[in-house]
Amino acid sequence: MAHEVNDNNFDEVVIRSEKPVIVDFWAEWCGPCRMIAPFIEQIGEEYKEKAIVVKCDVDSSPEVARRFSIRNIPTVLYFKGGQVVDKLVGAAAKSAFEAKLTPLL
Fold first, then answer.
1. Does residue 56 carry a catalytic annotation?
2. Rounded to 5 degrees, what are φ and ψ at 19?
3. Residue 3 has pLDDT above 90, yes or no
4. How many domains, the chain?
5. Which pLDDT tens digit goes with each residue over 49-66?
6. Among the options 33, 54, 56, 77, which is catalytic?
7. Which residues span the domain enclosing 51?
């Protein structure tokens, strides 16, 4: 299951992680965000030993969204060593999200 991150715990959970991290920037009202939510949850479960998968609600965490220039949602950022190393904007198949994660493992 993907955990929630917000303005208060983002650096602790994402930036300081020793594992690769996927951050799904989403909002409750976003249809495409709801479309990819099951994929994000599945990836979180399937890769839980190798990566961390989290969700960040842009409405309740505007600081983090601004910091990473999130202008469209869903936006999925891939972090490794505290740095953004890849991203995927918009709805996509589960395989597209996994293809970006695999090289980071």
1. no
2. -95, 160
3. no
4. 1
5. 999 999 999 999 999 999
6. 33
7. 3-104
**pLDDT, tens digit, for every residue of 37-96?**
999 999 999 999 999 999 999 999 999 999 999 999 999 999 999 999 999 999 999 999
**Given 21, 30, 54, 88, which residue is catalytic?**
30
**How high is the pLDDT of residue 38?**
96
The verdict on pTM exceeding 0.90 is yes
CATH (domain of 11): 3.40.30.10
**β-bridge partners, 77:** 23, 87
SS (H, E, C) the chain: CCEECCCCCHHHHHHCCCCCEEEEEECCCCHHHHHHHHHHHHHHHHCCCCCEEEEEECCCCHHHHHHCCCCCCCEEEEEECCEEEEEEECCCCHHHHHHHHHHHC
Residue 2, pLDDT above cutoff 80:
no
